[in-house]
Structures are given as C-alpha cells and as structure tokens.
Amino acid sequence: MANPQVQQMIQKVDELLAAYPTLFQYDKLRDLEKKTGQPKVYFFVGIVSLIFSAIYALGGMKLMTDLFGFAYPAYMSFKAIESSEIIDDTQWLTYWVVFGFFSIAENVMSFLIEWIPFYYMIKCAFFLWLYHPKFLGAGLVYKQVIKPYVMPALERTQPPKKQE
C-alpha cells in the first residue's frame, strides 16, 4: 500500500478532476483508467508534466514564470470584464499595470537576474502576492511605488485647465 499522504494527494487531485470534468477531460481519463488499470491521476500528472517540460524546453524558466503571472490573471480579467462589479475591474486593471511595469523593469535589468539566487521562485511568489485575493498586492505596489511617480508626470502632459 502506498504512503497515506500520497493516497491523500491522489484523492485530492481526483476530486479536482471530477470538479471540472470538461476542462480536464474526465471521461477520457476514466476510460484510460479502465483500459490500463492505472489511476487516472497518474495520466493527468504525466500529461501536465509533459506540458510543463515542453514549455520549459521552449522558453525556460522565464516563459514558465511569465505564464504563471499571465494565465490566472488573464482568466480572472475575462471574468471581470463580463461581471457588473467595478471592484474586480479595478483589481485586474491595477494588476496589469503593475505586471507591465515589472516586465519592462525585468527586461531592462536582465543582466542582474543571474546574480539573484532563486530569482524565478521569488518572481512567482511576487506574482502570486500581486494577484491572490487574500493579499491583492498589486493595489499596494501601484499606490506606493508607481502612482507617486507616474501621476505627476501624467498631470504635466495634460493641457492647462481653463479658468471660468
């Protein structure tokens, strides 16, 4: 019998697969399980591993971390566009502004990246902090770091207000 922690993890992944049957092609995974006698979770983990290996081979850790910072926020942005609430629009618009500034800064200072240990893990943690609903770090970065420098510059580009 396998380790109880491994069994628990397999059960959680199986529950995730069952919760989103269309997304994860649950029926096809179940058919594979019946034909081979191997748990469908193994096939799922194998497929996900192949996908991540291909992404890594194509673009390395930079591409993987950029996708980490893009995929979920893009999904949530599409949902926000379709919702009637303003607060989620503000959250995701703010995230994309911060993401853009970070991406430009990362490209400008790319020569420093190799000197920072665990840079890509730190980058993933930063993106997670920016968009996780518990933290909403993008709003903080915008208010404390970006806005104080950008807004005065934008105000200088506006035509003078007419006095009545």
Please tell me about this protein's structure.
- The chain has helices at 4-19, 26-36, 40-82, 86-108, 110-113, 119-131, 137-157.
- The protein is an all-alpha fold.
- It has a domain at 61-157.
- α3 packs across α4 (86-108), α3 (40-82) crosses α6 (119-131) and α4 (86-108) packs across α7 (137-157).
- The longest helix is centred in the middle third of the chain and has 43 residues, at 40-82.
- 10% of the residues are buried.
- The mean pLDDT is 93.
Q: How far is it from the N-terminal to the C-terminal residue, by CA?
A: 83 Å
How much of the sequence lies in strands comes to under 5%
Low-pLDDT parts are none
Name the helix and strand elements from N-terminus to C-terminus, one letter apiece: HHHHHHH
Level of helix content? over 70%
Q: State the helix count.
A: 7
User: Pairing-aware structural class of the strands and helices?
Assistant: mainly alpha
Largest sheet: none
Radius of gyration: 22 Å
Shape: elongated
State the total count of DSSP E strands.
0
Mean pLDDT: 93
Entry keywords:
mainly alpha, 164 residues, 7 helices
Secondary structure elements and pairings:
Blueprint lengths: L3 H16 L6 H11 L3 H43 L3 H23 L1 H4 L5 H13 L5 H21 L7
Helix pairs in contact: 2-3, 3-4, 3-6, 4-7
Subcellular location: Membrane
Organism: Stephanodiscus triporus
Pfam families: TB2_DP1_HVA22
